Amino acid sequence: MNLKPYPEYKDSGVAWLGDVPKHWEIVSGMAVIFEKQVKNTGMKENTVLSLSYGRIVIKSQDKLHGLVPESFETYQIVEPGDIIIRSTDLQNDWTSLRVGKVKNKGIITSAYLCLKVKGNLNGEFVYWLLHGFDLMKVFYGMGSGLRQNLSWIDFKRMPMVIPTEAEQTTVAQFLYHKTAQIARFIKAKKRMIELLKEQKQVIINDAVAGKIVIKDEGGRLKAEKRPDSSFRPHPSSFLQTVPEGWEVRRLRTIATVKPSGVDKKSHEGELPVQLCNYVDVYKNQEINSSLNFMKATATPEEIKNFTLIHGDIIITKDSETWDDIAVPAIVTENMDVICAYHLALIRTTTQEITNKYLYRAISADPIADHFRVSANGVTRFGLSQGAIKDVPIPIPSIQEQSQIVSYIETKTAAIGKAISRTEREIALMQEYRTRLISDVVTGKIDVRDIKIPDVAGIDDTLDESIDEPEGEEELETTEAEE
Q1: In whole angstroms, what is the distance from residue 109 CA to residue 479 CA?
Q2: Secondary structure of residue 355 in the 3-state scheme
């Protein structure tokens, strides 16, 4: 596919738009969209919607608990074709997608803006235009107030570029087609990562559960199946058996556990800090200074209690989904970084267990399953401090711990590289998608002569594999709606 620019351009007069096709109009937002506000007075509608990963989805009844209003009469009614803007908290949240298109009639928090496209314009094109602006982070130069919230005033004055009616249709069809292709590619790559992680997990499970005996033969670690006769039963339904000579200790006897309550907001009178947040732990096995940490504030007491040191283990203690509970990461250096909320900080207190082994033990399925079953909740799961402390940890000798860690690191190294390579392919494709959308909606690429297959049958739910941060978005969305 040959993507080329338009033959003639003009200066838009707007720095972030740059040059635009000569025949495109430059208008203010009020010429394209208007604010729609229809209160749900009298509970006319009861289908609750939510903005999640840039999509407007129906919120199931089993999730309508916790941080929800006393009455949904305060929500606003929205209809298919409406465009929703998450207009809150630009100062603290630079990662969430803020634009979504409504597909189902329902109600959504009045904290968001509901925009309607004027009748003489293609609504699909306008959605892609605003989505493109969102990806370009245009909104972060707007807003007002302490937490930098957007209002209708920001959008009515926003410069927008409008091509001919035929081009609007072509642009929308082209982007639906191309983003669906990209989504299919990413979906396949994510499946590959799942399979690689399953292979890696088998290695960790066998080593931590003592199913294999690891021997050092001339500097090379070799694993052999441990004889069944060398196991003894254990009352835990998850461990079931442990090798003879291994101890099983509650976590409370070998480590301190501190659930963090340090939020990501900046508060007057507190000290500036860097935060290791939920996504940092969820997405990384190791926490170190190479990560781009969020900036916030904390009290002196919070800094004292939650500053990270080498060997600390951090786990996710809250999640919307059961299987995301107790995902661990290990801190590999001393840092002036604070452990944030939705996380628990674990620090060993005895020389009977190494930090690296404890990290691997928590990563093993039998221990992870114990954490998950201990989590409380219906629509959101959470681990109490007591539940974390009560988890049983199998403990071999220090020498065997060292061999287990070395064996896991050696055997999973190639798998880890394959996962990293595949994740990089996904990241590059996501970057391409962002650039493609931005360039097409601002006229940097001419798609008028490109033959586009029929997009009527495209399943745009494929887009669910795009832009998902995996881990915290739902927690953050819920809080935004509070």
Answers
A1: 11
A2: helix
Please give the single-letter amino acid code of residue 401: Q
- CA 190 vs CA 178, 181, 194, 284, 317: distances in Å: 18, 14, 6, 16, 24
Q: Which long-range contacts (CB under 8 A, 24 or more apart) does 61-70 make?
A: 62/378, 62/379, 63/379, 64/379, 65/378, 65/379, 66/379, 66/380, 66/478, 67/478, 67/479, 67/481, 67/482, 68/481
Residue 310 one-letter amino acid: H
Torsion angles phi and psi, residue 115, rounded to 5: -115, 140
Report phi then psi at 153, rounded to 5: -60, -40
pLDDT of residue 88: 84
**328-331 and 286-287 strand pairing:** parallel
Contact 445, 437 (CB under 8 A): no
Q: Dihedrals φ, ψ of 283, to 5°?
A: -100, -10
* C-alpha closest to that of 170 among 104, 203, 125: 125
Neighbours of 28 (CB within 10 A): 12
Report the distance separating Cα 114 and Cα 170, nearest Å. Answer: 25
Tokens of 78: 């929205």
Residue 305, helix vs strand vs coil: helix
How far is residue 138's CA from residue 131's CA, in Å, rounded to a whole number?
10
Interatomic CA distance for residues 262 and 259, integer angstroms: 9
Domains and CATH numbers, the chain: 9-187+423-480 (3.90.220.20), 246-395 (3.90.220.20)
Distances (CA, A) of 107 to 60, 79, 103, 342: 13, 9, 12, 28
Residue 154 in tokens:
């920001």
* CA distances to 29, 133, 277, 373 from 130, in Å: 10, 5, 28, 43
Return contacts of 223-228, CB within 8 angstroms, 24+ apart: 223/407
- Sign for the pseudo-dihedral over CA of 71, 74, 78, 83: negative
276/356 Cα distance (integer angstroms): 19
Give this prediction's pTM. Answer: 0.79
CA 144 – CA 147 distance, rounded (Å): 7
Percentage of the chain beyond pLDDT 90 is 76
How many Å apart are CA 208 and CA 363, to the nearest integer? 9
DSSP annotation of 341 reads T
- Which residues neighbour 269 within 8 Å (Cβ) at sequence distance 6 or greater? none
Tell me what the mean pLDDT of segment 48-66 comes to: 80
- In contact, 77 and 107? CB cutoff 8 Å: yes
| Confidence check: pLDDT of 457 > 80 | no
- Average pLDDT estimate for 389-413: 95
**pLDDT one-digit tens code per residue, 123-171:** 999 999 999 999 999 988 786 655 578 899 999 999 999 999 999 999 9
